[in-house]
Amino acid sequence: MSKVQEWLESGEYLPPFLRDFHDQKDLFKYLDEVRERSVKKNGGAYMASLTFSDAQIYTIDIFLWVMARHGYTLQCSRKRLCFSDLDDTIARSNKSRADTSVALIQSLLSKGDPA
């Protein structure tokens, strides 16, 4: 096996925050929310049938793998700008989804309550 193939199979070509499958899922769920807002804002069905898991598989397993195979990797910008914190953004997105789920469950439970 070539050194490049070993490197690819190790996942080291991905930034650390994308090496864990569950962390990838959180990122792509957030990206899906951004896509949905874009569809609502701009109208039309732009990528309406694209699921977060389809996007995750394409991006991680195909696009970034092919790019890494050819020597390109994702990296944090070296510009000294005040960028948003990705971990914080994803954490807020996860909390929002969890809060929505809790509210839905509470609503369903209260409808079943005969009191």
Summarize the SSE layout with pairings:
Elements: H1 3-10, H2 21-42, H3 52-69, H4 86-111
Helix pairs in contact: 2-3, 2-4
The profile of the biggest β sheet is: none
Strand percentage: under 5%
Shape: elongated
Which value, in Å, is the CA radius of gyration? 19 Å
Q: Order of SSEs, N→C?
A: HHHH
Q: Alpha-carbon distance between the termini?
A: 68 Å
Instruction: Report the strand count.
Output: 0
Describe, in plain words, how this protein is organized in 3D.
- By secondary structure, the protein is mainly α.
- 64% of the residues lie in helices and 0% in strands.
- The chain contains 4 helices and no strands.
- The longest helix has 26 residues, at 86-111.
- The radius of gyration is 19 Å and the shape is elongated.
- It starts with a helix and ends with a helix.
- The mean pLDDT is 90.
